[in-house]
Each structure stands twice: as C-alpha cells, then as structure tokens.
Amino acid sequence: MILIVGLGNPGERYSNTRHNIGFMLLDLLIKENNPSKVKLSCDGELYKDSKYLYLKPQTFMNNSGISVAKVVDFYKVERIIVCHDEMDIEFNRIKIKKAGSSGGHNGLKSIDKHIGNDYERLRIGIGRPQNKEEVINFVLEEFNKDEKEKLKDFLEHCKEALKFLLNNSIQESQNKFH
Predict the structure, then answer these.
(1) Residue 23 marked ligand-binding
(2) What values do phi and psi take at 144, rounded to 5?
(3) Is 105 a catalytic residue?
(4) Residue 82: CA atoms inside 13 Å, Cβ hemisphere, count?
(5) With 90 as the cut, is the pLDDT of residue 133 above it?
(6) Mean pLDDT of the chain
C-alpha cells in the first residue's frame, strides 16, 4: 500500500493559505479517484482505494507526524509520498526528492521525528517573503491575486507530477518535472 500525505492545517481559516497547498492537491486526487473514507483513529482524514491511502493530518502542521505514524503503524505501508509547500522553490514550480533534511519545514520535522526521513517528497513551490521575519504570516496568508489566477493550473501540474511519480522512479520523475 502506498500512503500519499498532503500537509496543511485543518479548519476554514487556513483552507486557502499557502501552507495548505498539500491539502489542496490531495483534495484533487480524492475528487478524481473517489476513494472510501476510512474510520480509523489517526488524527486525520484518511481515504483508501485498492492501491492508495490518502491522508490529510488534522493535527495542525507542526504535529503532522503523529497522524502519519498512526497510519503507518496500522497499515502495511510500503511507500510514503508527502506533498508539501516549499518556500525554497518559487511559486508555480515543483521538485521531487527522497529523504534528506526537513529544510526547516515544521510538518516534515514532525514526520521525521515520528517515522524517520526515508520518504519521498513532492515539494510544491510557494516562494518566499521579502523579509525572514514575515515567514509565518506569509505561509498562513492566502495566495495573492496573481498566484490565485495560476493556482488551478499549477495544482493540475502537481497532480500530474504525483501521478507520474506513483508509476515511475524518482529519477525519471525529476527528469520530467524539474
């Protein structure tokens, strides 16, 4: 079974923020694939079809690893792909990698703490604010007008990259989408 995790924060207040782009991507996959909702006490919204588990942790970003660990402990998960916002990549670009550092991303830090860092990542570029002091506000703000106009197409691109990654190697996926 392959676990696909979309990172974000629960609640309407955060639904359209940069930090929730992982949730937005997972919502597209869930809508397209129509998996069944799973009733498992995992601190997250969990869906399942014949091949995949789809998880949206509801623990808030900084504790995402709690939810991921509960799903990994319950199911025989062979592969994990985490989809998350990435400030080190400009908006409208993605990168794919396996393992490595959290790069300061609190959701990844939490996952690393609970299950280690040997998982694949779809790093979804959201860009970076002008000043370092604005990082928290930046990720918790909605996309600006220009970004909103491009967001639907960007998320479709992310979905295609994820679908390609599910059926191909990291190297092939990097070559095609970087």
Answers:
(1) no
(2) -75, 175
(3) no
(4) 32
(5) no
(6) 95
| Residue 60 assigned as binding residue | yes
Give me the architecture of the 2-177 domain, per CATH.
3-Layer(aba) Sandwich (3.40)
CA distance 1 to 14: 30
Query: DSSP character for 61?
Result: G
Taking the CA atoms of residue 135, residue 154, residue 167 and residue 71 in that order, the dihedral angle to the nearest 10 degrees is: 40
> Which amino acid, 30?
I
pLDDT-based confidence at residue 40 (cuts at 50, 70, 90): confident
Residue 74: name the closest of 23, 130, 115, 118 by CA: 115
**Both tokens of residue 159?**
């979905």
| 20 annotated to bind ligand | no
Q: At 46, which helix (H) or strand (E)?
A: strand 44-48
Print the SS3 string covering 114-128: HHCCCCEEEEEECCC
> What percent of the chain stands above pLDDT 70?
100
The string of pLDDT tens digits covering residues 104-119 is: 899 999 999 999 999 9
Q: Can you give the pLDDT at residue 64?
A: 97
- Which of the residues 19, 84, 105, 114 is marked catalytic? 19
> Is residue 167 annotated as involved in ligand binding?
no
Q: Position 7: which residue type? A: L
Tell me phi and psi for residue 137, to 5 degrees: -65, -40
Give the burial class of 51: count Cβ atoms within 10 A of its Cβ; 0-12 exposed, 13-18 middle, 19 or more buried.
Answer: exposed
